[in-house]
Amino acid sequence: MSDNRITVLVPGKIHPRVLERLGKQFDVVSVDRNDEPQVDANVAARVRGIAVAGGVNAAWIDAFPHLEVIANFGVGYDGIDVKHAASKGIVVTNTPDVLNDEVADTAIALLLNTLRQFPKAESWLRDGRWVKDGAFPLSPFSMKGRRVGIYGLGRIGLEIARRLEPFKVKIGYHTRSPRDSLPYDYYPTLKEMAQSVDTLISIVPKTPETHKVINAEILSALGPQGVFINVGRGWSVDDDALIAALGNGTLGAAGLDVFYDEPNVPAGYLSLPNVSLLPHVASASVPTRDAMADLVADNIIEWFAKGKPLTPVPETPVKPRG
Ligand code: NAP
Ligand code: 8YV
User: Fold this and answer.
1) 247-252 contact pairs (CB < 8 A, 24+)
2) Is 33 part of the annotated catalytic residue set?
3) Whole-prediction pTM
4) Stretch 198-203: mean pLDDT
């Protein structure tokens, strides 16, 4: 460790490219990510940046008196106590835009898998059932003629909408503020949207307002032909209500990439035939994760070189470094 290099702390695991890029110009200190930081006092006094995939709570923020910047690996930064960071003048950055295409592609793939049961059809072939039992059963649902409501039409939601256009489905969305000049129907409430569509795709952030809003009422409004897809956060879903609705036919099918308490997936989903499950892989390709890693590194590099990170989150101030 050299004295004139800035120290950047990495709590827990992160993409190796972040370590490689930052290691070229900073002293990078990797530590376990527990609830309370356990970092040598001499190191703690030197830390000026944190790069993290996951969470940084107030205890971690308070443990480093010279902390200036926290760079999160991921566009969703719900694991970081941004309010606390903001109160101390610490800048938080995330990785927007570089993953829009990948996550939107995954949303469409998950929707098709859910409607047409392709993962099950492949298992049918691999298990020798095509030979033994004949053709795979017809899928109960199809993309054709669907009315799709997108809950959250931000960077990723808009890419999902654009990808849906060639499928000739009807597209609507719900956000708190309508977006200008878009050819999609705006619904002022989630409930109104759920009553008007048969396919709901959730791509909202984890916030106090989005907690368990996909509940029994919303699922029942989608109806027995209805399909729910979640690529946002598991936080937004009432799992008990969704498992019950899928089990008793109130809702037709669901496709989930994200869960309330990852990596734990409620057992109720695993035994249901009408749910397609992915282990939070929407952005998980080599090119996209490389781009996210580069943006984490570049945010830290730009902050210390120019006092201005590339992609600060709106809640934290960007004051030039003193
Ligand atoms: P974004 O550009 O900030 O878009 C968020 C959208 O949600 C906006 O349209 C916003 O519109 C809407 N929204 C926020 N709060 C809302 C509320 N209470 N009610 C209704 N609409 C609300 O974010 P993004 O880059 O698209 O990412 C969205 C989220 O996707 C991330 O925060 C992350 O949690 C998740 N994500 C998941 C994966 C994955 O691997 N599955 C990958 C990337 C991202 P208004 O502000 O007008 O309401
Ligand atoms: C990643 C995500 O899986 O960007 C996000 O918000 O949920 C995903 O892209 C995650 O952030 C990796 O830690």
Assistant:
1) 247/272, 249/224, 250/216, 250/219, 250/220, 250/223, 250/224, 251/219, 251/220, 251/222, 251/223, 251/224, 251/226, 251/227, 252/140, 252/141, 252/222, 252/223, 252/224, 252/225, 252/226, 252/227
2) no
3) 0.97
4) 99
